[in-house]
Specification:
six-stranded mixed sheet, alpha+beta
Length: 160
């Protein structure tokens, strides 16, 4: 059975492209246990992310909205990436990943419109989003269809 999801991504480094997969940090992999090939995932790109320790900030800001729809090609799997330490002293081990491929990148849904569709307050910044603050949330098929309509409408508007 196909499932529908939203995942949050920090903005990519300047010159990099947003990834179509789902990342979960160690200890939150249970949230993605039902991710499966063929599932559709909306990719939300935040305006900012945590600054990594020892890395120079590039000043790049993300689009703060839904930037694409991806189809998963793998289930959630462990990877051997090293833990990431941030300037605030916290560490996250982004060990879990489900690969995806974009099926649509032609539209855009800004954060306020997304919040309206999801029933959140307009000012919600999607920090701590998803089950157990994982950055991943399963959505119902009717919400997926509302997002599709808004995304198509966003393809006809000017995107930031």
């Amino acid at each position: 059975m196909k499932r529908y999801w939203i995942t949050t991504h920090w903005p990519p480094a300047r010159g990099d492209d947003v990834d179509a997969g789902v990342y979960l940090f160690e200890g939150r992999q249970d949230v993605g246990q039902n991710l499966a090939p063929g599932d559709l995932v909306w990719i939300y790109e935040s305006r900012t992310g945590r600054k990594e320790l020892g890395k120079k900030s590039n000043g790049f800001e993300g689009r703060e909205g839904i930037v694409g729809l991806a189809e998963l090609i793998t289930p959630l799997q462990p990877h051997n990436w090293p833990p990431t330490t941030y300037a605030d002293g916290t560490t996250r081990h982004w060990r879990w990943y489900a690969a995806g491929e974009f099926v649509d990148r032609s539209g855009y849904i800004d954060r306020q419109a997304l919040n309206t569709i999801l029933g959140y307050k307009e000012g919600y910044r999607l920090r701590g989003f998803g089950r157990r603050n994982s950055g991943l949330k399963e959505i119902e098929e009717d919400i997926h269809h509302q997002l599709q309509a808004a995304f198509v409408a966003g393809s006809q508007a000017t995107c930031p």
